[in-house]
Structures are given as structure tokens and as C-alpha cells.
């Protein structure tokens, strides 16, 4: 059985809250994105697309906060007992997650911008289009956005799989670093 995680070996409370909030929003938005084409009638589909875009913008805003807190608070060091390749894989994996948490919503924003329609945050704050309207570019941007989403899903599966492996199998990196329970 794992011993309780010392407070210094944990992520800060602000980073843990941002992690949980962003994980919930990202997983929900990936599910919503996969469901968009099957939603009927068109009015419900339009509302679902609006929610999908809103959540993407919220994730982007939370990412800025998360990067600030990560810079301010840092992250607990990985155990020296981990092989160097696993520490390197963890750093690369986290880097990919941060990159994708930015690239996925930005690619969606670019895709929306190519339509020429205004993007409204919470229904009232008009967000600037990142590019000029370009119907010919829309399919390419859609493909980019969808491809990045699938890549994010794969990296998330690897991240969760690695966390569970280290917690339950290797017992060398407890989930208590990120979550509040012990053991």
C-alpha cells in the first residue's frame, strides 16, 4: 500500500483545481465534438456547436491561468527512482498535453474564423476572427482541428494509462500528487 503523499510532493491546490476543471471540460467537449454530427434537429445542433465553441474558449482561458500557476508554483519533482526514459517520457507527454490544450481550441477558432461568422463568448462578448473569411480554407482547418482532437484523445489515454500504471502497478508515483485522497 502506498504511504500518504507529503504535501510538498503534491501539486498546489490551484493547479489541482485547474487540472480537474480542465479535464472535465476537455473530456466533455471531446464527447460533444464526437456527437455534433448526429444531433437533430438543426436548432439543437446549432446550440451544441455554440456550447462546443464556448467550452473551447473557456479551456483556452483556463490554460492561461494554469500556465501562470504552473510557472508560479512549479510541479513536484518526479522520483529519482524512475528510469531516465520514463522521466523524459513524462516531460514530453506533459509538453504535448499543454501544446494540444492550446492547439485544439485555437484550431477550432481558426476553423470558425474561416466561415466569417462572429464568435461570441457567453453569447455577448464578440471574439475577433483570427483570419479573414476563407471558405476554401475551411475544410483544411476542419481536418486540422479534428486531427488535433484525435491526437489529444490519444495523448490523454497515454497520460491516464501511465498515471494508473505508476499508481497501481509500480506503486512509485501515487495519484495523490494530483488528487486529494491518500494511498
Automatic annotation (TrEMBL):
Subcellular location: Cell membrane
Main subcellular location of this protein, as a coarse class: membrane
InterPro entries: Cyt_b561_bac/Ni-Hgenase, Cytochrome_b561_oxidase, Di-haem_cyt_TM
Keyword flag Glycoprotein: no
GO MF annotations, alphabetized: electron transfer activity; heme binding; metal ion binding
Domain Cytochrome b561 bacterial/Ni-hydrogenase: 10-180
GO terms under biological process: respiratory electron transport chain
Record's keyword terms, sorted: Cell membrane, Electron transport, Heme, Iron, Membrane, Metal-binding, Transmembrane, Transmembrane helix, Transport
Membrane topology type: Multi-pass membrane protein
Transmembrane segments: 20-39, 51-69, 89-111, 144-164
An example Gene Ontology CC term for this record: plasma membrane
Cofactor list: heme b
Top-level taxon of the source organism: Bacteria
KW Electron transport (keyword) present: yes
Family: Belongs to the cytochrome b561 family.
Protein name as it appears in the record: Cytochrome b
